[in-house]
Amino acid sequence: MHKIMSTADFFYREAQRLGYVARSAFKLLQIQKQYNLITPGSSVLDLGCAPGAWLQVACQSLGPSKSGGVVVGIDLKKVKVPSIHCDSRVSTVCADVMNLSKDQFLNLSPQKKGFSVVLSDMCPLVSGITTRDAALSMELGMRALDLALGGSKLPNVPLDDDHTEKQLNKEDGVGILKTGGHLIVKLLESEDTKELSKICKPLFRKSSWLRPKATRSNSREIYLICQGLH
User: I need a surface site. Which of 16, 45, 89, 172 has the fewest CB within 10 A?
Assistant: First the structure.
């Protein structure tokens, strides 16, 4: 009897066949296909960029090198820019997203004017304790939001979780996402993820949830897609 190939196996093999460093490439490929957030000339920031699959898809989405654009990846791990699907427009920084200041992020953007797309594929070291993992994931999500929008854009956020409240220490000034820009945040689904959606809805032209087909069946990963920052 033929063994049915799991979704995970299928995307893993496809990634190898097409030269992507990880199957997660297909998550961003699907997001791109549905929403077309990264376009030629975009400036893209990839938070939690290891092992580099999203860098590959982001660079491909910029079109030919003459179209311009830039992709900057940041991760706790040192990430080598993949040789396939990437060109000189892609660079990586080894740093802790939680510790860098907004100014340090802005310094990485073209003309220090911010990014047109912010991707957060950050995930906590999963412990298996559902509530703890969800809280840590939320903390990373809130950090991405705070960086992208600036604390001043997040007034009186009604959050139940003290831990998350602390995360929003509201670094003053504007965020690193340009007006009209797009934000993608990965979260582990929980009661609190709805809160994040509530915060984003009035700030963007459109916000929606997506669970990409390449997500493992036992995973609680879900992506918040925010389009067109007001």
Answer: 172
